[in-house]
């Protein structure tokens, strides 16, 4: 049940710090090896390329997974939308390994690719929240999210759990490959920091209600931008707002602004900008100036390492690839309150089902 919460979505947003701590306890026991089947770790470590396949929010988590595995396991990775992948198989590498992300473990688009991967004799892993789901049963390996049931149609805690579990596996595989980057990756410490930062954000519901009113109150369109890892989270934050509030949104790479989308920036248009990647922060700041010069209503969400005077939201700095654990919570709460303020059903938006079992 919802307990004392008015909606499942708010409850599930608030559960995220506890989910981070649970994943850490489960997979990263103190002074013990990472709690993942060594056969799975070995199998992934031997791959020459990883193929992530997923839909919707899970696809957005797989974009982060690609970055985590390339950095910490040093295995090239691709992330594909299941409904595209299934009908346009790429030319595969010699030793591919398939990683499916699915909260429900029932998504037909993803299952279709899994069935074909199995038919071709390719190794498969499913990362899912539901132990006895179809995908969990059909894949060679599965890893559980331990996020607890997700009831609201809009996915929240599954996304952050997916990123955390991807990070655990990337570290385990990188360690198996004896990579310094993986050995020195203090993932338990990072997940603890992320959980504390999430707590700070979710402890302050009223502030998010006000920010949503100020930036999204009367919006019919909203833009989300960022570069690199902040681009990945901008896609997810944009999906969150559009699917429950019905505000038209776009998430895009900040540098792409000048290649077309800037034509849409007019006075008052909300532009939510994520700036947590030090390597690209200055360039994104430049894009913010371009938007402001055209009257856009810019809300900056920055990490401490990237912060500047005037930034509305500043969050603790984590390693780049884990920043979405915290930045997405800001996006979730903005979407939540913008939707409540419109008097809409947050948990059950129109036209959507929790698990999509048709292709
Ligand atoms: C968005 C959302 C959907 C799902 C997508 C995949 O909030 O919930 O985009 O992420 O339908 O579902 P799963 O992860 O169950 O395969």
From TrEMBL:
The keyword Cytoplasm applies. The lineage of its organism: Bacteria, Bacillati, Bacillota, Bacilli, Lactobacillales. Its EC number is 2.6.1.16. The active site is at residue 354. The keyword Cytoplasm applies. Keywords: Aminotransferase, Cytoplasm, Glutamine amidotransferase, Repeat, Transferase. It is found in: Cytoplasm. Homodimer. Catalyzes the first step in hexosamine metabolism, converting fructose-6P into glucosamine-6P using glutamine as a nitrogen source. This is Glutamine--fructose-6-phosphate aminotransferase [isomerizing]. GO terms for molecular function: glutamine-fructose-6-phosphate transaminase (isomerizing) activity. It catalyses: D-fructose 6-phosphate + L-glutamine = D-glucosamine 6-phosphate + L-glutamate. Residues 40-179, 212-349 form the SIS domain.
